[in-house]
Amino acid sequence: MTLTFDDYQKRAIETAVYPKAGLNVVQWDGIPDFVPCGFIYPALGLAGESGECLEKFKKILRDKNGHISEEDKIAIAKELGDCFWYLAALCHELNLNMSSVAQGNLDKLASRQARGTLSGSGDNR
Ligand SMILES: [Mg+2]
Fold it and tell me: Strands, E, within 32-78: which ranges?
């Protein structure tokens, strides 16, 4: 059975246990307000897990001259999975389906490929 992005997202969210952070703000008229910011925790987690991947690559460069072992791959795959989890949670907090995000990315790349702008910089090329 193939695991789809949306299946993964649904199952990942069933394991989500994290604080729903928010901000206490004061509006223009001085009235205090609470703004729920459920995206903060998974956004921080995604950055953290990405950093864990990079830390492994750094140590592979430092200690193994860049040679990645099967053991390294297994460890990196676990960190990539952790990234996936936080990405799923972040999509959930933003009311986005992972499949739509993935399809949108492929569409963007296909458009750039067709227009010969895969290389270069800028989000909107
Ligand atoms: Mg991790």
Answer: 32-36
Q: Measured in angstroms, how far is the CA atom of residue 9 from the centroid of ligand 1?
A: 18
Cβ atoms of 34 and 22 within 8 Å: the answer is: yes
User: Mean of the pLDDT values across residues 6-22?
Assistant: 93
d(CA 48, ligand 1 centre) in Å = 8
pLDDT in tens, 43-82: 999 999 999 999 999 999 999 999 999 999 999 999 999 9
Question: 28 phi and psi, to 5 degrees?
Answer: -55, -35
What gap in Å lies between CA 96 and CA 21, rounded to an integer?
19
Whole-structure pTM value: 0.87
Distance (Å) from CA 41 to ligand 1 centroid: 15
Of 53, 43, 55, give the one whose Cα is nearest residue 87: 43
Dist. CA 88–CA 11, nearest whole Å: 9
